[in-house]
From TrEMBL:
InterPro entries per the UniProt record, alphabetical: Bact_RF_family3
Domain of life: Bacteria
Protein's UniProt name: DUF4868 domain-containing protein
Organism (species): Chitinophaga qingshengii
Pfam entry (one): baeRF_family3
Length: 350
């Protein structure tokens, strides 16, 4: 989705149509989604004909109508996002809530994609026990797959049948640590190919031992205690998703700390024109905005003027696009999180 975001942020040209539809995941509510989409497209059609000539509207509208007929609403999430122009059309199902709306202009409304990326997490799950270690890959509340090959599931071969040694705790602990150390080296190969955060499942003592054996520290973003050798994918997802939600929520605290540190280092801009100029010059590292920050106005010769008059547009879209196209990052924070900075702040590269 990150590549799609960059592609959409780079597009400029009229008409660029963004359609955002609030959808439903389950039957029978999702049966109404097709009706609501049709009504929204009808409104978009009227708006297009009011703003542009027919021969300009037809290619865009034809693409939207063709796409509408192919959408299977049985697979809807929380939002359906459609991006259409005379050159191409894209559709995305997003796991974030929205209100039904559309934007017709010379840029796409990419904030829903940004928010979806920031409110989602792709991660590994390691189920750890004395006898077996399982490796799974997940996205939010869905298990994508469990690794089943020569590496995992990994069965413990570090054991002894000597009754005297079985009674020695130190011997058993050393054998367990050797098992965990070998398992971690197997996992490390997968992490280096795809460096994702990790959720650990298992008995508390086993998790302590396992984390001691991990070569790469700081990967674990959540743990849950219990036995999961035979637990099904859906049941595991029910356990891990709340942990991932807590991890995502913690990112806001990290962002606020980064802003504070940048301010101390004199690398923080809060004036909208200063932010836009820095972005144009490639100096933007990370742009932070409140989700409800939506100033309107004009940009003339590189200068932003805020106003609500005729022709005023959402100023944040060109600012966001510029930051992304110059290799910067954009992070949305909760409402009122940036009160001290009037809703927006930019950390510069130097």
């Amino acid at each position: 989705m990150e590549q799609a975001l960059i592609k959409l942020s780079q597009y400029t040209g009229a008409p660029a149509v963004t359609i955002l539809l609030s959808t439903h995941r389950t039957f029978p509510d999702n049966k109404q989604d097709s009706i609501h989409l049709k009504n929204l497209i009808t409104t978009v059609e009227k708006q297009l004909y009011e703003q542009y000539e027919k021969r300009t509207v037809w290619p865009v509208l034809n693409k939207i109508r063709e796409l509408e007929s192919t959408i299977n609403h049985d697979y809807n999430l929380d939002t359906l996002a459609i991006f259409a122009s005379g050159d191409f059309i894209e559709v995305y199902r997003l796991p974030i809530a929205t209100t039904d709306r559309y934007v017709v202009g010379d840029r796409f409304e990419i904030r829903p994609l940004l928010k979806a990326i920031q409110q989602s997490e792709h991660y590994f799950i390691l189920s750890v026990s004395r006898h077996l270690i399982r490796l799974l890959e997940a996205f939010n509340d869905k298990i994508l797959y469990e690794v089943k090959n020569a590496d995992f599931p990994y069965h413990n071969s570090f054991y002894t049948t000597d009754p005297m040694r079985l009674q020695q705790d130190l011997v058993m602990d050393n054998l367990l640590k050797e098992f965990f150390n070998t398992a971690d080296k197997r996992f490390k190969k997968y992490y280096e190919e795809n460096p994702l955060p990790v959720v650990l499942l298992g008995e508390e003592r086993n998790l302590v031992f396992y984390q001691e054996q991990m070569d790469i520290k700081g990967l674990v973003v959540g743990t849950h205690h219990g036995s999961f050798d035979d637990t099904s994918d859906p049941e595991i997802a029910k356990i891990t998703f709340p942990l991932i939600q807590q991890h995502i929520a913690g990112k806001q605290d990290t962002a606020l700390q980064a802003i504070s540190s940048a301010q101390s280092a004199q690398r923080l801009l809060v004036d909208l024109n200063d932010i836009y100029t820095a972005a144009e010059n490639g100096q933007a590292d990370t742009l932070y905005l409140e989700q409800t920050y939506l100033p309107v106005g004009h940009i003339d010769n590189g200068t932003i003027s805020l106003s609500n008059g005729n022709g005023s547009t959402d100023i944040t879209l060109p600012v966001i696009d510029t930051v992304l196209n110059k290799g910067g990052n954009v992070v949305f924070l909760d409402e009122n999180a940036l009160n001290e900075y009037q809703g927006i702040a930019l950390v510069t590269r130097f």
